[in-house]
Task: structure prediction
Amino acid sequence: MTTLDEKNQHRLVRERFTRTAEVFGDFATATRARSAELLARMVGAKGSDCAVDLACGPGTLALRFARHVRWICGLDLTPAILARARRSAQTEGLANLDFALGDAQALPFADGSLDIAVTSYSLHHMPDAARVVDEMARAVKRGGRVGVIDIVASEDAKTAALSNRIERMRDPSHTRTLPKSELQAIFAANGLRILAEEEHEQDRAFTHWMHVAGWKPGDREFDETRRLMEATMAEDSAGFHPRFVAADAKEDEDAPEIHIINTVLFLAAEKI
Result:
């Protein structure tokens, strides 16, 4: 049963990704193909596998995994972003790939019916990230693999809280970024034995980071997020490692660009 809070969160996600379907789709498909290929290797994707990419967005994982598995379904809450994914699959001539409207917290697959379940950059939008991992573990057979890519928060609770405050100012559909230890514990609680993990630091220009979320300078959300980010600089109190960079000729010298670091975890596990 979907609660009122979950319905509200679904609404926020649909609103955000409907509004940014094209700009976010362009960004994700252009910059995350290498990450998708890395996760495919980590979970050992092969030609006999059937898989799901849940909260698939523009097909960030599904479009790449389709080149390695027998069949994959991309599942997402937002019709606009699914339409974008379907167009990409058609353009790329991928016939072993389907997309469907659905909730990552209630996968439409029988117990043990899949070989692989993956998701990318989605858990921090979920009302209950543990429930999503539970569903992934339920849907794969014993010996099946689960793979996650997501940003991770500091293990320090105060730092993580401020990071999440900034993330929610940027994107109201953000719920909570998990620290790595919590995600590892959720995997263990669901009988998932970690096969491989990698942690990457991704440098992001603040203006582009906000652009992908649908905001530009002068928007309240942009300006307030920047103010909060600047306030963390002296002590890196939100864990973004923000820094000013030299302004380009086109930029206002009074507002130099900020660069931040997103810490991203790649996690692959086997159901035991």
Observations:
- The chain has a mean pLDDT of 94.
